[in-house]
Design brief:
Length: about 190
């Protein structure tokens, strides 16, 4: 069992500590709506437990933390400008992964691998808005859609089963950005 867990840990590198994760209900974030990949039920069956659901499927492009109203207005303006000069693209390749557990449980996500355009957008927004960011930033941007949270730790068998779930349904266009603050939609910008 210890050998199997070590192999699993080597394949799924650790994500940042749970307390550093974004919380769109309290802070300011830039989100991209994501296709509902209908993976929630398939992953729940594979791991043998029901995942709690995300209300609005999305990919977090940038999480800034709790910032004031003037700063949120600046974020909205920067997002609108960057959206105009960003080319629309598709998120096509992804895999179902689990991040370390936090308060809500272990996030089960579709982590996208062909994301250079989204990564570039993230980097440009971070450079422009760095003076406003109060949330700890992760070393490398890992675009992902959270499918839900597993309340119990995943067994090695559940982890193996999770890896067998196809993420093909996770394909979706990168065509819109939303600025959310305190769980409220502040602005929307069309890409391209």
């Amino acid at each position: 069992l210890a050998k199997a867990q070590a192999e699993l840990a080597a394949e799924d590198p650790a994500d940042p500590e749970p307390e550093d994760r974004e919380d769109s209900a309290t802070g300011c974030c830039v989100l991209m709506p994501a296709a509902d990949p209908k993976l929630h039920a398939a992953v729940s069956r594979a791991i043998g437990q029901t995942l709690s659901s995300e209300d609005d499927p999305h990919v977090t492009v940038l999480y800034l933390g709790d910032i004031g109203p003037d700063a949120v207005a600046e974020v909205s303006a920067a997002v609108a400008e960057e959206a105009r000069v960003t080319e629309a693209t598709m998120l096509e390749r992804g895999s179902v992964r689990a991040f370390p557990a936090g308060e809500k449980g272990a996030p089960i996500v579709v982590e996208f691998s062909d994301t250079w355009a989204l990564g570039s957008l993230h980097d440009r927004l971070l450079r422009r808005l760095a003076h406003l960011v109060v949330a700890k930033q992760h070393r490398s941007f890992r675009p992902h859609q959270t499918l839900g949270y597993a309340s119990q730790p995943l067994t090695p068998e559940a982890t193996t089963a999770r890896r067998g779930v196809s993420a093909e349904g996770g394909r979706g266009p990168v065509s819109e950005l939303r600025v959310m603050s305190g769980g409220v939609l502040v602005s929307t910008a069309v890409i391209g």
